[in-house]
Automatic annotation (TrEMBL):
GO terms for biological process: DNA repair. The keyword Hydrolase applies. It holds the Pfam family HAD_2. InterPro entries: HAD-like_hydrolase_sf (IPR050155), HAD-like_sf (IPR036412), HAD_2 (IPR041492), HAD_sf (IPR023214), PGP-like_dom2 (IPR023198). Keywords: Hydrolase. This is HAD family hydrolase. PANTHER family: PHOSPHOGLYCOLATE PHOSPHATASE (PTHR43434). It comes from Paenibacillus anaericanus.
Amino acid sequence: MEKRKLKKPEAIIFDMDGTLFKTETLLIPVYHRVFDQLRAEGLYSGETPPEEIILSCLGMLLDQIWKKVLPNHDEIVHRRADELLLQLEHEGLKEYVTELYPKVEDTLAQLRERGVRLFVASNGLELYVKDVAETHEIISFFEGVYSAGEHKTSTKVDLVKLLLNNHGVNNAWMVGDRSSDVEAGKQNGQSVIGCAYAGFGADTELVGADALISSFDELIQLYDEAIS
């Protein structure tokens, strides 16, 4: 665990994919089904793009994702891919064995016991983000679950700003695995904890974070050692 001296937060805001949820346990099988359906509908031909491309897009808005995964296809194909992804992820959470990262539930419980207010801020769609939290029975830990899909925000900076304002939070930690999480925390004047265990992004993703953790439960030690 790499860290600077941190101030104890009143609230912690979590990204979902690559932070709480081991996204590839759902995304990889769904990704292949999306392209099977696009081919069946005549909207796509050829091999499915490499899995590494979609995994590298985690943390982006859907519009940005399809521009990277399907750069040579138009908005009609992109929007149909949106629909299929949401539908198949919803079905897949019931069909597949999906996973949170180790010790997520126990760590959230311990933070709540310490009086920390917990939130989620994700660039995903509302149904998907809440589905994951409900399926894995962690939604009750959170005072608010915010998604770009629900609040129509164009950046995570704006989403986190909205969350902070709506809940009167002044001192928070933003916890996530992508540069968008670092940006969202820092541009809103908050500390950032970078999750270095997911491995989806480049080495530079978490530059600027105040601390890096290699497992989720290290948050407890960080919190307990932070300055009141």
